[in-house]
Amino acid sequence: MQYQIKAVAFDAFGTLVEIHDKRRPYARLAKAATRPLARSPMCEAIDLDAMAQLCGLTLGASEMDTLQADLQAELASTEPYPETKEVLEELKRLGLRTAVASNLALPYARPIEDKLGYLLDVSCMSFKVGFVKPDAGFYAELCRRLNLLPCEVLMIGDTWRCDYEGATVAGLHAIHLDRRGKAEEGQHHVSTIDLRGVLSYIERQ
To answer: What pTM value is reported for the model?
Structure first.
């Protein structure tokens, strides 16, 4: 069977994977910043040490060690949702390409690559491409990396503005992931409670 959709792109955190031990070291540095950030870790490969400098903070070794330990705890506690691998494997069986398309800082790419990389054909991360969703430039880069037209790509993610509206404005198909059942009126018909909704969408094409 030939599908109009040739690839499915997934947001990362809240969609493919979740952090069980959230400590938010980057957010804590940003909150403590003594000056406006001239650059964003979402748009550039900025590690924690560089982030502290960017925030105008001079931290002692013990403070940085604590932040690094918190970061490592977050990464170690990152796990795929129960249905993630099942859905990715089925998409591969159907002959569809898969991608991760996410707004995130440099270190958070590692657990995705380590645990799901073998099931993903393309990675489009904001810190690598210099655009953040819902910017049209992000979706243009995603399609470029897939070597597909926007109308051949289905995007799914848990953030309405970034993952649904941003994708549809850019010409992609899209599904809103609503794991907690909090979709607003008017969103239900394009929402799913888990990633298996992708397979149902594909079957209807």
So the answer is: 0.95
